[in-house]
Amino acid sequence: MRKEEKQQQLMVGNWRMPVKVQATKAAKAAAAAAGSKKGKKKWSKGKVKDRAEHIVILDQEKYDRILKEVPTYRYISVSVLVDRLKIGGSVARVALAQLERDGVIKAVSKHSTQLIYTRATA
């Protein structure tokens, strides 16, 4: 296209759009250098939750507490025992199986991933 044709395309009615002035190479380089100094964004680590210290070997005190308190719960599951008694999940599963064998609690649902028990009423 010729220069006159380009200028004619820019004209709208009697109004003419201003021609954009190109920055010099030095100005472009300075702008790029100033922008690159910012660096990468620092991602926050978020809130770090403290790791719970659950016991994995039962002592006599904790065993007595399981025998005394758990049969009084209305809803009994592995997660309830882990949360309330601060014991590991494998210890909680063994304790629930033992309490069911003793007839102290009864099973409501025995799915492979979620065991739900309730107190045994006489």
Automatic annotation (TrEMBL):
One of its GO terms (cellular component) is ribonucleoprotein complex. The keyword Ribonucleoprotein applies. It comes from the Eukaryota. The keyword Ribosomal protein applies. Pfam families: Ribosomal_S25. Keywords: Ribonucleoprotein, Ribosomal protein. InterPro entries: Ribosomal_eS25. PANTHER family: 40S RIBOSOMAL PROTEIN S25. Belongs to the eukaryotic ribosomal protein eS25 family. This is 40S ribosomal protein S25.
